Amino acid sequence: MKDFSGVEDRRKYLRLRAVLFVCFTLDKSFYIPSLSEEQEIEASTIDISQGGMAIATRYNIPAKAILHIKCLLLGVDRQGEISFSRPVEVSGEVRYSEAINSSAYRLGISFTDIDQEHREQIGNYISSISMGTVYPCVQPR
């Protein structure tokens, strides 16, 4: 893992460490031999913000690739009630890909196409968890 101590964090949005199920497809403008353009790939988030996310996947997707991503934001409130959002759908550019181990990669993704409603939905989710009114809920596969 890279050491970023002493490096200024220039992120615009608060980032939340959370494990959520996501699925994505590769944009038609990119070709990767091991993937078909319409193949839906399952992954999980490592962290998420209103401006992007890091995900763990089995595929080494190159930087600059565009992904179309779907994600549900799940949480549990203090009474044990599960809350979930309508699917958040965004497009994002892979900024980096690094090996986690021999069979998994961490992709850093910057959102390139996200509507204001979905950006606010992510922001509200992060705020609820940060304030302790909702607790992240790991989604089963």
Entry keywords:
Thrombin, subunit H, single chain, six-stranded antiparallel beta barrel, 44% strand, 10 strands, three-stranded antiparallel β-sheet, disordered N terminus, mainly beta, 141 residues
Q: What's the short story on this structure?
A:
The chain is mostly beta strands. The protein contains one helix and ten strands; from the N terminus they run βββββββββαβ.
The main sheet comes to: 6 strands, antiparallel, barrel
The structural class is mainly beta
- Kindly report the average pLDDT value: 84
In the CATH classification, which architecture applies?
Beta Barrel
Structural domains: how many? 1
The 3D shape can be described as: globular
Q: Which strand order spans the largest sheet, edge to edge or round the barrel?
A: 2-3-4-9-8-5
- Round the Cα radius of gyration to an integer and report it: 15 Å
Fourth CATH level, the homologous superfamily = predicted glycosyltransferase like domains
The number of helices is 1
In N-to-C order, the SSE pattern is EEEEEEEEEHE
- What is the number of strand segments? 10
CATH class: Mainly Beta
The CATH topology, please?
A: Thrombin, subunit H
Helix content: 10-25%
The fraction of residues in strands falls at 35-45%
Describe the structure.
The structure is a single chain. The chain is mainly β and 141 residues long. The protein has one domain: predicted glycosyltransferase like domains (Thrombin, subunit H, Beta Barrel). 11% of the residues lie in helices and 44% in strands. The longest helix is centred in the C-terminal third of the chain and has 16 residues, at 116-131. Residues 3-9 have low confidence and may be disordered.
